[in-house]
Design a protein that fits this description.
CATH topology of the largest domain: D-amino Acid Aminotransferase, Chain A, domain 1
Helix content: 25-40%
Radius of gyration: 21 Å
Number of domains: 3
CATH superfamily of the largest domain: ATP-grasp fold, B domain
Structural class: alpha+beta
Largest sheet: 8 strands, antiparallel
CATH architecture of the largest domain: 2-Layer Sandwich
Strand order of the largest sheet: 12-11-8-9-10-13-16-15
Distance between the termini: 56 Å
CATH class of the largest domain: Alpha Beta
Shape: globular
Length: about 425
């Protein structure tokens, strides 16, 4: 084990799905926290793969750990990263929440069953769906409702179903595409002891129908250490007119304190009931102030990497510190130092119609835009020549082409700066 500058032993933090932008910030955090960052599996190995094997990924990670042992394993990505991190932590007797409690939240139907038990008034109507049933039964809930795989991310294979025709089309799409994540997820589920019968019946290749809920959408983020639950941030989610597509996140939340307290109480009850400990989490909610309702949308057993930059610009600290501390078995101690901004946002740059990309700024141009509009960070997801309909992991209703991160003095300033950045980016498309 290496020695830190202050003479203490420098620990090793292994990260599943590490990519350059977070590697750089984690490295700076590690300099203060006396740990070094190691990539156990690169982001390219656990993201955007059309076909992959859970066992192959685990074997590759084990080889990396044999060559370079670590003192903790963490991730800020969805499945399979979250489950791989939990499996490896258990195998190497490292700190972590344990695979069973991670899978409870990763399996959308199992998570809903727990929510119904712990917070029934805050859980929307739901039902398990066997997409391979023959003949296919009728819709399990009254129209309209959402239909999703029990294991998905970023809206993949999620459908808003409003009539019989859409129900049949959604089932066909799920049958064609659910194996990609459902197969490996079933392999994870097979590792868990005492899976409830109703969850075992639907397995990893099933789907869930969920009643429509609405309100102000937000994400609460926190962690658990030795059974003590703490919340370190609440982030507002803004949606387009269609009600399903994210336009941007903002931090800090503008929701009333009473609503925030209600969400904190639900978070404590949920993670405690799941036996989730020594790890970070985030929970998405809808807050319907007019009706005095708080709806649970979903629970994720990880931090959100999308919140990292926003916290830095507002609080002067990153939620990556929480992830690292929890994985190393320490009590996360966020000490906000005060960032340069009163508000920060992550914008999702989308296009509704298919097209071929004809113009994107080069790296030099991007750096100049980021410098001019600092604090600003831009992440392009397309290259010249790309066909939008061929991009991986796209939701059914639009194509995601870039992320824009901005800090500002107030909301008006934020939106003005975003409009100016988009004009400078000058992205081109050929319909």
């Amino acid at each position: 084990m290496e020695t830190a500058m202050d003479g203490s032993e420098r620990r090793e933090l292994g990260v599943i799905g590490l990519e350059p932008r977070r590697a750089e910030r984690l490295g700076r955090i590690g300099q203060e926290g006396a740990f070094a960052v190691r990539s156990v599996l690169d982001a390219a190995r656990v993201r955007y793969l059309r076909q992959w094997s859970l066992d192959e990924l685990l074997d590759e990670a084990r080889r990396r750990l044999d060559e370079q042992p670590v003192d903790g394993i963490a991730t800020y990505w969805d499945f399979p990263s979250s489950c791989i991190a939990a499996i490896l932590a258990e195998e190497h007797e490292l700190p972590g929440p344990g695979l069973p409690s991670v899978v409870v939240f990763e399996h959308k139907y199992w998570s809903r069953l727990l929510q119904q038990k712990v917070a029934p008034e805050d859980t929307p109507p739901f039902a398990a769906v066997d997409v391979f049933a023959d003949p296919m039964a009728g819709p399990p809930l009254p129209y309209p409702f959402w239909l999703k795989p029990v294991k998905s991310f970023s809206g993949l294979l999620g459908f808003r179903v409003t009539d019989h025709e859409q129900w049949c089309a959604a089932i066909r799409s799920l049958r064609a595409g659910i194996e990609r994540l459902g197969g490996p997820f079933q392999q994870v589920l097979d590792r868990v002891v005492d899976v409830p019968d109703e969850v075992a019946r639907i397995g990893g290749r099933g789907a869930i129908a969920e009643g429509m809920i609405d309100g102000d959408q937000c994400t609460l983020e926190g962690y658990v250490h030795d059974g003590e639950v703490e919340v370190h941030g609440i982030f507002d989610i803004h949606r387009a007119a269609d009600g399903s597509t994210f336009t941007h996140y903002t931090y800090p939340s503008r929701l009333p304190e009473a609503a925030c307290q209600r969400m904190r109480a639900i978070a404590v009850d949920l993670v405690t009931a799941a036996g989730y400990d020594q790890g970070a989490f985030n929970i998405e909610f809808f807050v319907d102030e007019a009706r005095g309702r708080t709806w649970i949308l979903e629970v994720n057993p990880r931090i959100s990497q999308e919140h990292d930059q926003l916290m830095v610009w507002v609080d002067g600290v990153s939620n990556l510190e929480v992830m690292a501390s929890a994985a190393l078995g320490e009590h996360p101690m966020l000490r906000p130092r005060g960032g340069p901004c009163a508000i920060a946002a992550k914008f999702f740059v989308r296009r509704e119609r298919d097209a071929r990309v004809t113009r994107v700024p080069d790296a030099r141009r991007l750096a100049a835009i980021e410098d001019r509009f600092a604090p600003c960070a831009i992440e392009l997801l397309v290259r010249t020549g790309d066909r939008l309909s061929e991009l991986p992991e796209q939701e059914p209703y639009s194509y995601l082409i870039a992320y824009v991160y901005l800090g500002a003095h107030d909301e008006g300033d934020l939106m003005d700066r975003y409009d100016a950045v988009m004009r400078e980016l000058d992205l081109g498309f050929d319909d």
